[in-house]
């Protein structure tokens, strides 16, 4: 990925200009979905796959950060997840608990890259701008930057602002896994049905005794009524098409 000036749109530069796009039609299960992304990273590192974009709608999941597991209330938080119909998992990346379900879109972008580690910081800015651009295409007033009190806070979170009065809400959370020779950038776009996500996060963060503002948990359709995951998916691919040649590929092409 090449350098980007402040405020510019994200630029993506796959080695040969092509990016395989794989739509995973159904969840493999919460744990398997998370594990599969890491398998793709290993395969990119070995050179068995090239630049790949994997898109899917996940099963209800709360992905905890490593730090969460060391808090006294972690087991209670796990129980709260199950009580709300979400499967608790622990991801290898940092951050705090984040929740997602069928009303969200998971975007796993994996690429072989000889300078994967060197570009890790810049990558967050690139992808933040890309996702904000995609959301603006469907009418969301989106911008990049952490908002006060957000869950799983991050400098490059993407948030949305209501057209009238109201709090800004977090819409996209991002995480990155980097190894020598490849990287995986995984993002969660919350599009539909924010109430269950807000409820499970409220219960989890209470159990962990972490401060946050539940008003920051929302979905894109809270800002643009009627917006769907399918519409956001197409907007995202339209945005990507300005930076790479998209090549549709069947999910079977990723199955070992």
| Helical run tally | 6
Based on CA inertia axes, which overall geometry fits?
Answer: globular
Task: Identify low-pLDDT runs.
Answer: 1-11
Q: How far do the termini sit from each other?
A: 27 Å
Task: Give a verbal description of the structure.
The chain is α/β, with parallel strands linked by helices and about 260 residues long. Helix content is about 30%, strand content about 25%. The protein contains 6 helices and 11 strands. The chain has helices at about 30-45, 75-85, 120-135, 195-210, 220-225, 230-240, and strands spanning about 20-25, 50-55, 60-65, 85-90, 100, 105-115, 140-145, 160, 170-180, 180-190, 245-250. Helix 2 runs antiparallel to helix 4 (about 195-210) and helix 3 crosses helix 6 (about 230-240). The two termini are about 25 Å apart.
Short description:
Helix content is 30%, strand content 25%.
């Amino acid at each position: 990925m090449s350098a980007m000036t402040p405020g510019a749109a994200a630029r993506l530069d796959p080695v040969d200009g092509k990016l395989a796009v794989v739509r995973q039609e159904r969840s493999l299960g919460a744990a398997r979905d998370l594990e599969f992304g890491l398998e793709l990273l290993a395969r990119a590192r070995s050179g068995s796959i090239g630049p790949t974009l994997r898109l899917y709608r996940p099963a209800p999941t709360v992905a905890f950060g490593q730090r969460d597991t060391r808090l006294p209330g972690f087991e209670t938080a796990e129980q709260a997840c199950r009580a709300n119909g979400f499967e608790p998992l622990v991801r290898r990346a940092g951050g705090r608990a984040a929740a997602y379900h069928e009303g969200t879109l998971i975007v796993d972008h994996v690429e072989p890259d000889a300078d994967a580690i060197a570009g890790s910081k810049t990558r967050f800015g690139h992808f933040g701008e890309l996702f904000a651009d995609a959301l603006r295409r469907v009418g969301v007033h989106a911008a990049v930057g952490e908002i006060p009190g957000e869950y799983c806070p991050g400098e490059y979170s993407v948030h949305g602002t209501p057209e009238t009065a109201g709090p800004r809400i977090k819409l996209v959370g991002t995480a990155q896994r980097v190894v020598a020779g490849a990287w995986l950038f995984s993002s969660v776009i919350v599009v539909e049905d924010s109430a269950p996500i807000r409820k499970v996060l409220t219960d989890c963060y209470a159990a962990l005794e972490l401060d946050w503002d539940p008003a920051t948990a929302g979905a894109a359709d809270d800002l643009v009524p009627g917006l769907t995951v399918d519409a956001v998916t197409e907007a995202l691919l339209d945005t990507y098409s300005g930076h790479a040649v998209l090549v549709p590929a069947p999910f079977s092409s990723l199955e070992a």
